[in-house]
Amino acid sequence: MSFPPGPRGVIEVARAFHSFTREPPAAMMRLIQHYRGTAGFNMAGERIVFLGDPELIAEVLLDKDGVFVKDRVTRGLSSLLGQGLLTSEGDLWRRQRKLIAPSLTKKHIALYADSMVRLAEKYASSLGDGQERDVAADMSAATLEMVVDTLFGTSLGGGQERVGRAIDSVMEDFQEIIQTWRRAFPEWVPFAARRRTQRMVAEIDEVVLRVVRERRASGARGDDLLSRLLVARDEADPTGGMDDRQLRDEVVTLFIAGHETTANALAWTLLLLAEHPELDARLFDEVRRVLGDRAATVEDLPALPFTEAVLKESMRLYPPAHIIGREPLRDVKLGAWSIPAGATVLISPWALHHDPRFWDDPEAFRPDRWTDGSTADLPRYAYMPFGGGPRICVGNHFAMMEAVLVLATIVRRVRFERISRAPVRSQFAITLRPEGGLALRVRSRSNASRGRSAARRS
Asked: Could you give the angle at which helices 113-125 and 135-152 cross, rounded to 10 degrees?
């Protein structure tokens, strides 16, 4: 067995690495297709492997032998996330997952539906016909308010904006490090981005730790996630819950998971609907038929299959978590290949979601593929917007409920139009964002348009 095939020689490797740092998923897909499923190269002593074979991806993500840990880049997020679920490993991760998962079951997250809808209604009602809006910024602000309400059960006043801005700054600085020559330098090298990250993390800590300590000291408990985490106990050690620092790490991790990824998914979805008015009209018809003039509730979710299909198809084309990294602790065999200890093994949901081996007309926005049986025989890891295996996103049900309810609430009141026909570029940061925001024009659902919609159905 040998290391996977791929670019060789200084010039070829430099070109491949440059392409990868500019547009990681697209570069990965080209390499995977050219080298038939698995590719690898050596860049300045760093072994990088790209996996596009669902069977090999399953071996890595299921990891029955405990060989794989998060890769070096993901571990670097510990500067922001500490030892939260995304970055922790081993016994600590297993303990934390066990403590947190019960608070994010479908039963428990249903308690947050009314809050999500109320805040989505607040946003939708603020929109005026003909307004030009940056919907990426709008969705970021709206989901920030929602995650604060569900996570803390109260407003943080100006604190939530401080935390939101600080997280954005840290993520941009992190991208600057990992996608440039700076990634080759050890973490102690004081680049401006790293110094700025330290200041921003201190701001986050000031807000989040203050809330955690005040809530613990008060003894007040509610149905918000922080209250649940404060009382969570491990059966093996029922007297010991999470200390303030661990709570801080998990709160910040949930803050990002419930805010950043959902905001991006909704922004891309609104863009796709603006580009496909016929599908927007179908979505509106479903929402109006189910909701009429009332607000959405969690009980409406089973009656909104097309709404869910629209979001699933949007996350196929624009998966918020577009890349997943692992690192083997020892030499390991994957299929026909030998992967050395310490190599970076990368999996791209974006590349998988655009791969013609798995998808008919993969670049097309076709929500019906999720309702007409087209996806019934997909390989298990050909679609993975929330990751996979034991480390699948613990908040996946929370995110889908939030996205469906928010989308239905917005669509019931307004639709959006493109202002420019210029392509919207993707920013392949830690998450997949629209580069430079996303400007769309608001159009109210007027009585006249409702009447035309009804006439079309009759």
From this structure: 150
Structural element, H or E, at residue 132: strand 132-134
* Non-local CB neighbours of 30 within 8 Å, separated by 6+ positions: 19
At 441, is the secondary structure helix, strand, or coil? strand
At residue 397, the 3 state secondary structure works out as helix
**432-434 and 132-134 beta bridge pairing:** unpaired
Record the tokens describing residue 10, joined without a space. 């200084």
Which ranges constitute the DSSP H helices of 192-345?
A: 192-218, 225-231, 244-275, 277-291, 305-317
- Residues composing the chain: 458
CA dist 375 and 312 (Å) reads 11
Question: 84: closest CA among 257, 196, 247?
Answer: 247
DSSP label at residue 250: H
CA distance 179 to 20: 9
| DSSP H or E run through 444 | strand 439-444
CB atoms within 10 A of CB 138: 21
Q: What is the mean pLDDT of each run of 10 residues along the chain (458 residues)?
A: 87 85 84 90 85 94 90 86 90 90 87 94 96 96 90 74 81 72 68 84 88 87 87 75 90 84 96 97 97 95 98 96 93 93 94 94 97 92 93 90 97 96 87 91 72 45
**What are phi and psi for residue 154, nearest 5 degrees?**
-165, 160
Q: Burial of 283 by CB count in 10 Å (0-12 exposed, 13-18 middle, 19+ buried)? A: buried
* Cα-to-chain-centroid distance, residue 407: 16
Q: Look at the block and give the residue holding tokens 């030009």.
A: 132
Closest CA to 81 of 195, 247, 238, 263: 247
The closest of 437, 439, 435 to 22, measured between CA atoms, is 435
Running DSSP on this structure, what letter comes out for residue 50?
Answer: E
pTM: 0.90
The H or E element spanning position 121 is helix 113-125
Residue found by looking up tokens 């297709």 in the block: 33
All domains in the chain, ordered by first residue? 10-457 (1.10.630.10)
Q: Which amino acid is at 28?
A: M
Return the exposure string of 27-59: e unless at least 16 CB atoms fall within 10 Å of the residue's CB, then b: bbbbbbeebebbbbbebeeebbbbbbbbebbeb
